[in-house]
Please model this.
Amino acid sequence: MKKFILFIFIFSLNFISHPIYGYYVAAVSDDSKLLAVAGTDKDINIYDLNQQKACKIFSNIHKLGIRDMLFDSNNNLITSSSDKSIKVINVESGDTIKEFLGHEDWVLAVGYIAQSNSLVSGSRDGTIRLWDYKSGELKSKITAFEGDVRTIIYVAEKNLIVVVSETGIIDIFDSTSFKPLKKFSIKDVKITSASYISGNSSLAIVTNKKKLLFYNIDDFKVLKEENLEHNFLSSVEVKSKNYIVFGNESGKVEVYNLSFSKVKSINVGKFKIHSIASDKFGNLYIPDKNGHIFKVDIDRGGSEVIFTPPDNKSKVTK
Model:
């Protein structure tokens, strides 16, 4: 009975309404040369953005679906999974070059701190963990975390780690000492999306009650709130354009400026946008559940499919 209940809910955690099968995590490398897309089927698809072609598919890196991922400063891919593990993948070979073990439940979110060469992870086991990225050693663990982790945000200019839970709890830590600094709570909501906006030192929070809230990161005062027609499921800061962009449940991206005003709405497709990645030029990359990758030009206000579902010819099984 326990296993049956877990199966029902296994794909509904990281966002309010995951597809039962599909792609829901996207990441772009810091140099904007590579795009990685993954999801519930355990495959990791790597795309060359310069040549606009699919490179490789790595299969069975994890035993279960991938919950979060990002590139490190050397273009290795950090992945967390429902199989309780975190792995660092060489995207040329598909080899696992590092593995972080110790979480006792799904690892929902990861954050990479280049300055201190550290990794932060959040799990359903109720812990946030700080790891030495080079050695893999566990440096610190904070237990009794409240609720499933929605996202982990590293705020470099303030040396902060912001951990946002689905249940409305926001914990802020010192990124060097991992000392808890502040805790804030948004009551009676579930958080569907959270992003930091470096241009004005604010947090953009979206709740399941179709409300968009902008908070000052220092004192957590509400700077602006807005009622939404369609809920936002994903978000990303586009630093090169001074925008914060949200993906909603009706297949549109909503673009806001640093004054918290919506400047445009761009139609992408008839699907829920669960993940958005941005390159350093301000282009957006959005996967749908069937393996299509859409590129969105914010300035032009249009979108196009640049990658179709890859075949198995380039699949590398590990």
Notes: The chain has one domain: 2-317. The two ends are 32 Å apart (CA to CA).
